[in-house]
Write a structure and sequence with these properties.
The chain is mainly β. The chain has a five-stranded mixed beta sheet with strand order 2-9-8-5-6. Strand 12 (205-209) and strand 13 (216-218) form a beta hairpin. The longest helix has 23 residues, at 566-588. Pfam families: MG2. Keywords: Membrane, Transmembrane, Transmembrane helix.
């Protein structure tokens, strides 16, 4: 075997505090008093890092585009302080529509910093632009801009083409970013700019700055560029006349130049990052004492005191020992206030290198292909692999990979177009464009002003370990129970297992069972007792944030993905439509029998319950019927149960008082065919509901039905819980949702004869594995799969992370 060079990631000495896992992140660290004013800033950064370590998430998807009826396969990667988050257990993933309503959401179990998952898209899935959102509970304590989001487009396979091109993309805007933050009057300033169209995508521009020199400007990469300007003092700002590539001309105003303060110039030379402070007035004694602090991932990497009166205004930061990532360089005044700030990207040779050691590619129908991946010589590598049809599956070049996400976009605010491009090589043009990204985007994981004043984030969500069941107990007098216990019999219908647990009740009447791990749904039969063993105890379980149906607020506008080549899209949709037909045949398990004449009409299973409950106008109608006597719903109430189940019905806000909308109006609400309201239905236990009928607009069964109707029926005698939900004498039932059960990717083995192999094979994803086994001796991994009926070229995408936090991606077409 030939030698394979390995590049190990250079790490700062991350210190993950034990208090993180103990759940007491709010404890104040004890530190010695600072030696001088600048040490106070260093201590504030150290305290923030110890108490609030960064957790990040990335999702590797099998494809960039999907059609209704397909399955979204993904692998979640979780890191803490740049290393695999081996203590993480819970990953929350949501699929949001263009209005930020949750279409699907699941909790996935994280093991060894990875979480396999999938979302099944029904064939009735409305086509359009969606977002995948992934996060841990710990990440919710901080700015939502740093949760993982990814835009995907879902198509209707029955249509031959995609949506019409957006004809409103002619408008554009230009933003200007003085280096360091402010324009300084009377001093040479470097100003970066970014031009985007009204969809948020970059456009190329040219123009002129109306200064004494009529400075010309021109974008050099993805709408970004820089120019030099020396503004004069005064209230008037310079104007920029900018022309787009389509000939449209607009005038923009630059920021007003400041006569006080200071700016910061940075020159990234790779091994050394040079900086220079630029005071507005060299004679201003308030600017005599300055300090430069550089941090990466909340770790101090450089500090220098500057004395302007003695001419010490510049220096350099050694970067040859730093890992790849964003370096934040901040200039502070003697009062501890930040004066200027600049980001710089460190490019180290520390990528996780992967390649194909051996390959045996079979392009004939249903023949087996084999790839042997060569991986770094590390203790452990965690990789996921997708193989798709290179001709029929479109590729979104704007989709970020694990490298560009964890090293770049997860640490800055603002949209970065095609972030993977900046990691393709280390050519001067690429590095210059990457520096433009640093100048036109902001780093705001924390505020220097706030942490210097010991103003830290409020911890609303502790670091989770497993699933918790907690709540409060009260007595017949309504007061909290002091002492006592809550006995629980926990049954798992998915595997018929059961266990017994007992939770002590503390002095506040609260109980908590933490670190539970179970799939699907747990049936918790509980019985509380006080210190005197009295059974007159009321129990109220806490509602987890993930069980609440709230509309998600995405910090960035939803961007329509770039248009796909029409020929590629037609091939993709036609194949997806044929694949859906095959999947229906497999799922229906169709068996052809000898022809039999049947005269009696077969009653549908749902009609038995519906006929027992509905009458009059409620017995018919156009809509949806949900028979809960045959289900074990885990929803909080009927509104959570219905959310995302009915196309067009919008249910948003707090589940206790949700907002309902259908075709611009409120649907009518009925309880046992009597008109009711939201407050009545929201308090109704889902376990008491037998049937829900949702009528499409218009509904003629009563008043207020122009926008449809929701009819709810409570259980009658005879509608007992299912056989796998037996009651236990003296105990009450509480259902708790656990980890989602991840479907197994279908990969046929054509070396074995099976009845299902008689069906056509129209798979677009030929191979998907979220956890490919790696041979620790040879540091190789084998990928084997059988071709479908038509693919001639394959796209192999490998993404992963090592135990040292080195990330990498390999992509090649065969």
């Amino acid at each position: 075997m030939q030698v394979h060079n390995t590049k190990k990631r250079r790490h700062l000495k991350w210190m993950i505090p034990a208090t993180l896992l103990a759940g007491v992140m709010g404890a104040v660290a004890i530190m010695p008093p600072p030696a001088d004013w600048s040490d106070h800033l260093v201590q504030a950064l150290q305290q923030y890092n110890n108490r609030f370590p960064q957790e990040k998430v990335f999702l590797h998807l099998d494809k960039d585009y999907y059609a209704a009826g397909e399955t979204i396969w993904f692998k979640g990667y979780v890191t803490l302080q740049g290393l695999p988050s081996t203590q993480a257990t819970n990953l929350y993933v949501e699929l949001l529509d263009k209005n930020n309503n949750i279409v699907q959401k699941k909790l996935f179990a994280v093991f060894n910093a990875g979480a396999p998952g999938n979302f099944e898209l029904p064939e009735a899935q409305k086509p359009g632009v969606y977002q995948l959102r992934a996060y841990t509970a710990w990440m919710l304590n901080f700015d939502p801009a740093f949760t993982y989001t990814r835009t995907i487009e879902i198509f209707d396979p029955a249509k031959k083409g995609g949506p019409a091109a957006d004809s409103t993309a002619a408008d554009f805007s230009v933003q200007f970013f003085p280096e360091g933050g402010n324009l300084i009057a009377g001093q040479p300033n470097t100003v970066a700019f970014k031009a985007i169209d009204n969809n948020g995508y970059p456009i190329e521009v040219t123009g002129t700055i109306k200064d004494p020199k009529n400075t010309a400007i021109k974008s050099i990469h993805d709408g970004m560029g820089t120019f030099e300007v020396t503004p004069t003092a005064g209230p008037d700002a310079y104007q920029a006349v900018v022309k787009s590539a389509k000939g449209q001309s607009k005038t923009f105003t630059l920021p007003v130049a400041q006569a006080t303060g200071a700016s910061l110039k940075v020159f990234n030379k790779g091994a050394r990052i040079f900086y220079q402070a630029v005071p507005a007035n060299m004679g201003d004694t308030a600017m005599n004492k300055l300090v430069v602090i550089a941090q990466m991932g909340q770790q101090l990497v450089y500090k220098a005191l500057l004395d302007v009166s003695e001419g010490r205004i510049s220096g350099f930061i050694p970067a040859d020992k730093l890992p790849s990532g964003i370096l934040q360089i901040t200039l502070f005044g003697s009062n501890g206030a930040p004066l200027a700030e600049r980001l710089s990207f460190v490019r180290s040779n520390d990528r996780m290198e992967m390649d194909i050691l051996e390959s045996d590619v079979a392009r004939e129908p249903r023949k087996k292909s084999t790839f042997v991946l060569r991986l770094p010589d590390t203790l452990q590598s965690n990789i996921s692999v997708a193989v798709t049809d290179a001709d029929a599956v479109p590729v979104d070049k704007n989709a970020a990979d694990i490298v560009s996400t964890l090293l770049l976009t997860s640490d800055i605010k603002g949209f970065v177009y095609n972030p993977n491009w900046y990691f393709k090589d280390t050519n001067p043009a690429t590095l210059q464009a990457l520096d433009l990204v640093m100048m036109t985007n902001g780093w705001r994981r924390f505020s220097w002003e706030k942490i210097a004043k010991n103003e830290f984030p409020e911890i609303r969500h502790p670091y989770e370990q497993g699933v918790s069941v907690k709540g409060v107990t009260t007595g017949v007098n309504g007061r909290p129970i002091v002492g006592g216990k809550l006995d629980m019999i926990i049954k798992l219908p998915v595997d018929s297992s059961s266990m017994f647990a007992s939770a002590p009740i503390d002095e506040k009447g609260q109980f908590n069972i933490a670190n539970m791990v179970f799939p699907d749904t747990a049936y918790i039969y509980y019985q509380g007792s006080d210190a005197k063993k009295s059974k007159d105890v009321n129990v109220k379980f806490d509602i987890h944030f993930f069980d609440r149906a709230t509309q998600v607020k995405i910090p960035y506008p939803l961007r329509v993905p770039p248009a796909i080549d029409n020929n590629s899209l037609k091939l993709f949709l036609a194949t997806a439509a044929e694949s859906n037909k095959v999947n229906r045949a497999i799922n229906n398990k169709t068996v052809y029998l000898q022809e039999v004449n049947v005269n009696a009409k077969k009653i549908k299973p749902e009609e038995t319950t519906e006929k027992r409950y509905t009458s009059g106008m409620f017995s018919g109608g156009d809509g949806y019927t949900f028979d809960l006597t045959k289900e074990n719903p885990t929803a909080y109430n009927i509104f959570q149960y219905l959310q995302s189940k009915v196309a067009g019905l919008q249910i948003t806000g707090d589940l206790s008082n949700p907002a309902l909308s259908w075709r611009g109006g409120k649907p009518g609400l009925y309880l046992n065919e009597m008109q009711t309201d939201v407050s009545m239905l929201s308090t109704l236990s889902i376990n008491d509901v037998a049937l829900i009928k949702v009528f499409r607009p218009p509904f003629m069964g009563g008043f207020g039905g122009a926008n449809g109707a929701i009819a709810v029926y409570t259980k009658k005698g005879g509608d007992n819980p299912p056989a796998n939900d037996p009651s236990i004498k003296g105990f009450q039932l509480y259902k708790k949702a656990g980890y989602a059960i991840v479907k197994t990717f279908y990969s046929p083995d054509y070396s074995v004869k099976k009845e299902v192999h008689a069906l056509p094979d129209k798979r677009l994803t030929l191979y998907w594995s979220p956890n490919v086994p790696v041979d620790t001796l040879t540091h190789t991994a084998k990928v084997e799969f059988y071709n479908n009926d038509f693919s001639k070229r394959f796209r192999v995408v490998v993404q992963g992370i090592t135990d040292e936090g080195t990330v990498g991606k390999f992509e090649q077409e065969f």
